[in-house]
Specification:
binds pyridoxal-5'-phosphate; 7-stranded mixed sheet
């Protein structure tokens, strides 16, 4: 059976160009980048080229990029690396209720270690209130961490305005841009972003590689001790092919952004309008205006989301209920709770996230099956 993949917010297929670019670094230029002979130096040159490609995507200097093992490590490094270094300055962090668990659980650990965290609310569209942010700032506030775009409902935050507030108050600003990178234009200088997390496998590079941008005037404490890799900030022999792959994915994202965004938007809007036409009693979650191009999140009243996912799987359709992290449980995710969705809707939530490989025919197949299945599920109530 043909697989129709609509879960690009969970992970993406690695692009062929990315695999091709990585391949020689497994079998030819496999030297340790710290070695002084040519084989090692070739790997080192490749890494520095990749670093520049990552930097170009978000408009920073290449020496402001640190490679990590992914979004989770970047988030951990940003939060712990700043708070541990500044523990004599202040112990307060401001974040939101709808962050990824890589941020929320890092905050939990920090709270267990004596730090104080404020979790900002979001409105029904999943957007933070800037006045609430300003009101939350205290003398003790060291860091603001607000995600660029949400992984479940796709809402995009007013990042530039948050950056301006942070700058004015002299507070460090980090953003988890794992979902936004490649889907939204990002300029860290113009947006006053001090630190930014990104991840390879959400943008056509492999799993297990990511990056953290840190403004050049900013210090942070490293999490992993060992050798001198990544300018003493992230020890461990480099994941050379991964870095090369991430660099290539960033280059493609930069060159192809408009095309990519327009394609995804077209498929998503087609999906929204077809679902609205064919299925009654639905709610679209997240902002229509400030939204990731490939994200849809729809709640179907009186439908069990997991039952729906199983039926879709039988037809070769991959999608997600609410959040990948809460699949298996029928408790509404923290994001759906934060936007105040009623439980008779929240339980029947389906996240469909489009990618470069999807076609209009895929969307028709999806909606046709969805309409049939939802009718069946509701008839058996
Ligand atoms: C996927 C994701 C992460 C985690 O990234 P990994 O590379 O899987 O560790 C963090 N934040 C957001 C918003 C994500 O979507």
């Amino acid at each position: 059976m043909k697989i129709r993949y609509f879960d690009n917010a969970a992970t993406t297929k690695v692009k062929k160009e990315v695999v091709d670019k990585m391949f020689p670094y497994f079998v030819e230029s496999y030297g340790n980048p710290s070695s002084l002979y040519t084989l090692g130096r070739t790997a080192k040159v490749g890494i520095e080229e990749a670093r520049r490609q990552v930097a170009d995507l978000i408009h920073c200097d290449k020496n402001e990029i640190y490679f990590t093992s992914g979004g989770t490590e970047s988030d951990n490094t940003a939060l712990k690396g700043i708070m541990y270094l500044n523990k004599n300055k202040g112990k307060h962090i401001i974040t939101t209720k709808i962050e990824h668990h890589a941020i929320l659980n890092t905050c939990k650990t920090l709270e267990e270690n004596g730090y104080k965290v404020t979790y900002l609310n979001v409105d029904k569209d999943g957007i933070v209130n800037l006045q609430e942010l300003v009101n939350a700032i205290t003398e003790d506030t060291v860091l603001i961490s607000v995600m660029f775009a949400n992984n479940e409902i796709g809402s995009i935050q007013p990042i530039k305005k948050i950056g301006e507030i942070a700058k004015e108050k002299g507070i460090i600003f980090h953003t988890d841009a794992v979902q936004a990178c490649g889907n939204v234009k990002i300029d860290v200088k113009e947006m006053h972003i001090d630190m930014l997390s990104l991840s390879g496998h959400k943008m056509g590079a492999p799993k297990g590689i990511g990056a953290l941008y840190v403004h050049k005037n900013m210090e942070f404490k490293n999490l992993i001790d060992g050798g001198h890799q990544e300018r003493d900030k992230r020890a461990g022999t480099e994941n050379v092919p991964g870095m090369i792959g991430l660099g290539e994915a960033c280059k493609i994202a930069k060159n192809n952004m408009e095309n990519h965004v327009n394609r995804l938007k077209e498929l998503r809007d087609m999906y929204f309008s077809e679902v609205k036409n064919q299925i009654p009693d639905i709610k679209i979650n997240g902002s229509m205006e400030h939204r990731l191009p490939g994200n849809s999140n729809i709640s179907f009243k009186n439908v069990n989301g997991n039952e729906l996912l199983m039926k879709l799987d039988e037809k070769g359709i991959c999608a997600s209920a609410g959040s990948a992290c809460s699949s298996g449980s029928s408790i509404p995710s923290h994001v759906l709770t934060a936007i105040g969705l009623e439980s008779k809707y929240a339980e029947g939530t389906l996240r469909v996230t489009f990618g470069d490989e999807n076609t209009k025919e895929d969307v028709e197949y999806l909606v046709e099956n969805l309409a049939k299945m939802i009718k069946e599920i509701r008839a058996n109530l």
